[in-house]
Write a structure and sequence with these properties.
This protein is of the alpha/beta class. It has 3 domains: 84 residues, Winged helix-like DNA-binding domain superfamily/Winged helix DNA-binding domain (Arc Repressor Mutant, subunit A); 108 residues, D-Maltodextrin-Binding Protein, domain 2, CATH 3.40.190.10; 97 residues, D-Maltodextrin-Binding Protein, domain 2. The strands form 4 sheets. It has a 5-stranded mixed sheet, covered by helices on one side. Strands 8-11-7-12 form a 4-stranded mixed sheet. It is elongated. This is HTH-type transcriptional regulator DmlR.
Length: 294
């Protein structure tokens, strides 16, 4: 017979990488969390959690046990939710990550709207340009931009984006407008978190490594430099469309623009998908395209 004692505490500690954080979510004392996990480790006869004064991590055995227990709890949650669904109430906690700027502009407002509809949910929204390991770092859902790496994760497309190479009219008046990729070597190219730009022409894809005076991992900073006439930048549509419409920026090399790529909801594969995660994903799929009209 399966023993559930300590499982919820163990999974929550793994998700939060913190005994204190787990205690707050479970609404019990830190000492009680620690006792439950110690008893679980004694029952299994192995160490699951490594504790130091500053850090909590899982042992190799703990990682495997966590992956199994996470799915078991998801199955239990699904069973609970099947009953709760009769009243339309979602409960529990969701941990979500998204890139900083896209998260601020698109995801955070929609997550807030979702929370207003489901007041018994709690959400931990982490906006970061770091690409987290969802299982290791305890995330239920990630919003990924662009091309996806091969993965065992489930990926559902939420929207598309287009990368625009653009500059201010003043910059182009001073330095000329490039009409071929080779001419970019004569321009100041403002780079983001990668040192290359992607292009596509006559069905062939090109990866170019331009040079410039600024390299910054923040799109807003690159946008500001571009608006101030400091160079060319390749930025997604959600940064530049208002400035293209106002005439503050213009696009160049449109014939070399890559086809649109995806914006994705990515979450761990499970035999028992979490109802709160799947409903949040469906909500985002419906609402993100509507936000383009605002």
């Amino acid at each position: 017979m399966f023993h559930w004692e300590g499982i919820a505490e163990f999974v929550t500690v793994a998700d939060e990488a913190s005994f204190t954080g787990a205690a707050k979510i479970l609404d019990i004392s830190t000492a009680q969390v620690s006792r439950k996990i110690t008893a679980l480790e004694q029952r299994l006869g192995t160490k699951l959690v490594l504790r130091t004064t500053r850090h909590v991590s899982l042992t190799d055995v703990g990682v495997i046990y966590y992956q199994h227990c996470k799915q078991l709890l998801a199955g239990l949650e699904q069973a609970d939710q099947a009953v709760i669904d009769m009243s339309g109430v979602l409960t529990g906690h969701i941990k979500v990550t998204a890139a900083i700027n896209y998260g601020e502009k698109k995801i955070a407002p929609l997550v807030n709207d979702f929370m207003r509809q489901h007041e018994q949910l709690t959400v931990d929204l982490v906006l970061s340009n770091e690409r987290f390991d969802l299982l290791r770092d305890g995330f239920d859902l990630a919003i990924r931009l662009g091309k996806l790496e091969d993965s065992s994760m489930v990926a559902r497309k939420l929207d598309t984006r287009v990368q625009h190479l653009c500059a201010s009219p003043d910059y182009l008046a001073k330095h000329g407008t490039p009409t071929q990729l080779a001419q970019l070597q004569h321009h100041n190219c403002l780079l983001g978190s990668t040192d290359y730009w992607r292009f596509c022409h006559d069905g062939k894809h090109h990866k170019l490594h331009p040079k410039g005076s600024i390299s910054c991992n923040n799109g807003n900073a690159l946008l500001d430099a571009t608006l101030k006439g400091m160079g060319l930048a390749q930025l997604p549509d959600y940064y530049v469309l208002p400035h293209l419409e106002s005439g503050e920026l213009v696009t160049v090399l449109d014939d070399y623009r890559e086809p649109e790529d995806g914006i994705w909801a990515v979450y761990p594969h499970s035999q028992y998908p979490s109802p709160k995660v799947t409903k949040l994903v469906e909500f985002l799929r419906e609402e993100i395209p509507k936000s383009h009209l605002k």
